[in-house]
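Two proteins, back to back. First:
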Amino acid sequence: MAQVPQTFFDALAVRTWCGLALEALGRAREEIDAINVYPVADGDTGTNLYLTVESAAAAVDAVFIGHEAGSQGAGPALPSLADAVRAMAHGALIGARGNSGTILAQLLRGMAQVLAADSDTSHADASGLRLALRQAADAARQAVAHPVEGTVLTVASAAAEAADGAEGDCGTVARAAYEGARAALAVTPHQLAVLERAGVVDAGGRGLVTVLAALVETFTGEKPVLTALHAHVALDSPGDCASPEGAGPAFEVIYLLEAEDAAVARLRERLDGLGDSLVVVGGDGLWNVHVHVDDAGAAVEAGVEAGRPYRIRITHFGAGDVHTTGAERPPRERAQRAVVAVVPGPGLAGLYTEAGATTVLARPGEPPASGELVQAVRRAHAREVVLLPNDADLRHTAAAAAEQARAEGIRVALIPTRSAVQGIAALAVHEPERRFDEDVVAMTSAAGATRYAEVAVAERQSWTMAGICQAGDVLGLIDGDVAVIGADVTAAAETVLDRMLAAGGELVTLVLGDEAPDGIAEHLEARVRESYLAVDTVVYRGGRQGALLLIGVE
């Protein structure tokens, strides 16, 4: 992620905002899910917003990567503002989930319409940001068939109005928008009876406040404290205030649609007659359609008449089950339990696979998205799944994936492993024959009892817990923090290992990357054998895994 603060709204600011918003929504996802009672108390607003922003952030990253590859070292490797905001809007559109995610996609599209209007402009100032926020609020309101006050639409309008009256730089405008949204969110329970009965603020509005807080951090470097943003939650679960049986439509239907504007106008009229919570966002031939209906088939047929619908998702609110995923269900019988693990290199992928796990390969610099993890859970084809993210930065992504899988009726336990060596320890005590809860407890305990470290090469100058490092320095990280800065890989690894074993240990696990120096494993094994009695060492080849060496001490 780029450094903050950013002075202007340029491509780098777009990328930074997307990254910060994704992190913030990851932290707030469960809280937002818990207060989701409108329009349907299905407890997934936070997850849907996270998945929508995840898709937007991935699209922006792809533009940067493509631009860097095309520049070949000639000039600054930065895309234009127009390219970045268009990618952001397109990514959100194709990845939008649920009512809230669809509206957020239109908010981002509205901003992009202003910020990308002049393709030659490298950045936008405070005036451009004010206009973008106003267009975002207006575009989102127009996309909803029957706007309701006390929702995310109200919060977006308040943000735009507050920004209109702000004088100063982008940071000042962003903060004004955030404060306006925050104030509007606080009064949503007084505007919508279902929120007041539940004692909560609007979940979609809460998510938008989180996204705007990330915008403030992008331009000021300061993270607003999101306190006292919701009323007292007087219910145990969102379902406690759900509509009476039969009071609302039974299905949520979402699909992407390739169609002309005129056909979409007719589609809006037809879907409005079939159900409620209708939101149609997009343009330029590509649309995202969201509606709640009793006749899901009719909603899809309407899309077929308008153009080409695809990525069709139909959710039954009562059963909480996704009835269609775009493919037939595998005919084979489900296994009782499986382990799904993210691994950093092909060598470990082979090791995990031999142990019976379904793996997702995390390529260096390309962490898997939640969709990849969900696909792996489906591929495991089990009633119960233990998910090992093996990376601290993947905790929110893995949590969102677990939530999606649970919506499909799969029992998922997420063990917060922060390194592949912790995953190895967890997998070593995995016993499918045990009760699920007992197995998860044993695996969690084994992972927690394993300290982890890695040895890598610094890519740039940076401040660390151990001092300032320069590009090319060897870094030894213990439990995620830099503990050693050196010039020699083997010496740094030995220092790291000694510090870890000073606290005791019974087993050392070494995972060698392709670029680890020859003889390092033998040297470290000899060090353990000579200096630490009754400590065993096991060595694995990790392949191309990013780090030169991974170390685990159980």
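And the second protein:
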Amino acid sequence: MTYTNQITEAERLIGQNGAPWADVEAEAVARMRLQNRFKTGLDIAKYTAKIMREDMAAYDADPANYTQSLGAWHGFIGQQQMISIKKHFGSTKRKYLYLSGWMVAALRSAFGPLPDQSMHEKTTVPMLIEELYTFLKQADARELGLMFSELDAAREAGDEVKAKDLQNQIDNFQTHVVPIIADIDAGFGNAEATYLLAKKMIEAGACAIQIENQVSDEKQCGHQDGKVTVPHEDFHAKIRAVRYAFLELGVDDGIIVARTDSLGAGLTKQIAFTKEAGDLADQYNSFLDVEEVDANNVGHGDVLISRDGKLVKPKRLPSNLFQFRAGTGEDRCVLDSITALQNGADLLWIETEKPHIGQIGGMVSRIREVMPNAKLVYNNSPSFNWTLNFRQQVYDAWAEAGKDVSAFDRAKLMSVDYDGTELAAEADERIRTFQKDAAREAGIFHHLITLPTYHTAALSTDNLSKRYFGEEAMLGYVLNVQREEIRQGIACVKHQNMSGSDIGDDHKEYFAGEAALKASGKDNTMNQFAA
């Protein structure tokens, strides 16, 4: 509905209610409605699910249409990302937010900093989703409020051309509300627990939920050791639980991202229940590391299974976990991925130990032999040493091609001594094009960085602390923070405005008219910053 139509509708409603509503201004109502487009989290989930589905179709048509996100651990961080994207690129198209379970554990738990092992309060996840969307909606209200102020000024100046242009901008306003891919870890319990948490996440606004095939009470970060997977049927039950949650709440096109940690997981807690030879459970068990045993020589407490007519003993650790055969990780990833898509997942996530297009693409090619439209969400993880990894990839490629690499020590390629070399330049170029190349060659629809803003917060705080508490003192803040905010046009240099002060002033004027006590008068120090 256009701005003019919103005003007309509000006038009609106010007129119906007569004198008691006489002091309610139709245009103010229209403005407040436009500033609060999304009334509930479910409105957001339905809106953003449609965006993701359209983006997935666009990627299928052309892999150049891949999507991206950065992890955000606070509503303000997510808000500033989207404000920045709109400022620099004019549109949030194909730009999302990622909600990282790692950052929730490390930064948002009442227990304090925790490792990524599902020990944090699971309710923190939907609370962060709600917080992120509260800040994104406030970004809408703020930007529209500035447009309304400009519109009032244009009208007062009698500039009809500018007023018309501003009304057109308002009618075509692009919201800061974008899809969030939200991490539910391994579901925080059984399938019922997964369903209950998924509902809370969807009600908060999540249109895409990522779930992994680890054991819930043994969950580890994807880049830690000791990962333990579950049989496929257990994982598929949780995928169905998330789908039921979406359907119950009317988000019929909600997205499920199925993550496999099998590449780095050498253990399982369960031997899968097999009904017949060759079924999915039997395929899962076929990866177990076993040894043949003599039925007459079975040890006390040994666990035995029958395989191809032979009695075998799976290798069991003192932790009561069973071991997979070494070298089976890729085969297990491929089977996990195919069966997850066959059982209701929409996108895949393969957690790898390095960012290598050939490795990822090789698995995707095998998956696509069965599921041609398979697409990945990929973690461009800060756990990878990107500089070292890519310098070593270039080194290996050069060595294989017969190029002289005698000037380089492969194990020490991270050294600053190599920064100006041709090898380092080629590695940096491969990093720059990694997302585009992997989207084209390895089926990656969505590239994300899980915890970048954890690192940027630490880096910027370190730099400020070093300068402010050192010889630069106040100049350390002014030179490297405030002056840069002003010159780069960072909106929150006017921090009162960013926190909602001007929105509140507008409301005060709507509610109290000339009697409103506003904060944005001539004595507000924010006026020292030019628009």
